[in-house]
Amino acid sequence: MLPGVLTLDKISGAILGTFTGDALGMPVEGWSSREISERYGEITEILPGRLRAGSYTDDTEMMIGIAESLLECGAFNAQHMAFTFCRNFNHERGYGPGTTRVLQLIKSGTPWEQAVQRYSRAGLTAMAQQCGLPR
User: Fold this and answer.
1) CA contacts within 13 A on the Cβ side of 7
2) Angle at CA 59, nearest 5°, toward 56 and 64?
3) Which of 8, 20, 41, 56, by CA, is between 20 and 30 Å from 109?
4) How far is C-alpha 51 from the geometric centre of its chain's CA atoms?
């Protein structure tokens, strides 16, 4: 396999790795390694947290949106991806206030570019940058 070549195995592995890491890390999201060690020692099983054990957070939900949009469009389409994020939005997954507001603005008709500019620190901006969108 050539380095740098995307294959279905690599894409599937990235998606499954994101979901697994997100589900494992969800109960201790935002904790320091010291806090985790003091509370659990070593985490060797999927634990419940603010969501039930094995659940994924906003990070995986947005990654799913990226994959869905790319599959539906066959290529990157910024507007479609923004609408896909809005369609998939589930506040209980743990979206921050900035990302929540950006998605609400887009859903209410604000062009995605303007909504993202208003909240440039939102997680949605970070996701947009990972996908190659201008800031």
Assistant:
1) 8
2) 80
3) 56
4) 16
Could you read off the pLDDT of 8-44 as tens digits, one per residue? 888 889 899 999 999 999 999 999 999 999 999 988 8
Q: Are 36 and 28 in contact (CB under 8 A)?
A: yes
Angle at 22 between CA 16 and CA 28, to 5 degrees: 155
pTM for the full model? 0.79
Same domain for 66 and 102, yes or no, is: yes
Side chain identity, residue 112: W
pLDDT tens track for 68-88: 999 999 989 999 999 999 999
Strands (E), the chain: none
d(CA 27, CA 76): 32
- Residue 31: is it exposed, middle or buried by C-beta count within 10 angstroms (0-12/13-18/19+)? middle
Asked if residues 100 and 58 have their Cβ atoms less than 8 Å apart, the reply is no
Same structural domain, 45 and 76: no
Domain range for 26 is: 7-55
